[in-house]
Amino acid sequence: MNLPTLRQLEYLTAVVELKHFGRAAERCFVTQSTLSAGIQDLECVLGIPLLERTNRKVMPTALGIEIASRSQQILSLSADLVDLARSESDPLKGRIRIGVIPSISPFLLPKALPSIRKQLPLLELVLIEEQSERLLTKLRSAEIDLAILAFPFDIGDLSHQIFAEEQFWVAMPKNHPLALRDSVQVTQLPAQDLLLLAEGHCLREHALSACMLPTTTDRATLEGTSLYTLIEMVAGGLGITLIPEMAINTDMVRHADICLRPLDVKETKPMREIGLVWRPSYQRLNTLDLLAKSFANALTK
Which domains does the chain have, with CATH numbers? Predict the structure, then answer.
């Protein structure tokens, strides 16, 4: 019995995701004719059409979508097998691709990477910064091995390990009335002046949750594309914002013309948790534990 090849499955998943033969071929580093022939061979092996082709576009059939989804699982398992074999000789060396969300990477990585390089000199870390949902997509497709996310966040059937937790601080102009207080209670926050990150950033939802505000309500408010932008907007007197605890001692915040006060909440549980996420089939658990400890230690310094 003829079986599909991993290469054919890779071609299919790329076309189904991108819905474009040219871009899919570029991702797979092959010519468009090679990719098209590979998918036709796959259709011959399976005995069914997987794509609807027209002169202008390509659309996967319902069964093509299902087979592409299962193909992605097979490709992820295959990538983990190769990684396991390579790490057998030494679990502390090799390449690990880590995705990090923008509200964590500039505050955690500069603190953690020097120590990791010193402790694990043979370990090569490839870092990718993306929003949470995109990182989960890359994780499931084996484009990355691990992701560093902020919780609570729905990761489905993926595995995770929390290595840090933190509260929020209120950033405000120095002449703001709340700057006279030692801390700020949630009920004292002027919700109409709250500056948020744009849709898609999990820090936005965490901030709204900390303020006990609905995440789906239409809000007439200014938005920023990064935490740095929000801080500059606060310094310019445009409003207030919440920043994670890991950011308060960074140069970006210390040099800003703003005032910081801790957000005082009645509940003692953390407002945000930081953790590693990986596929259940990922086998480099010893390396994962070492990285989690290194990240955790970096945030306590």
Answer: 6-84 (1.10.10.10), 91-164+272-300 (3.40.190.10), 168-264 (3.40.190.10)
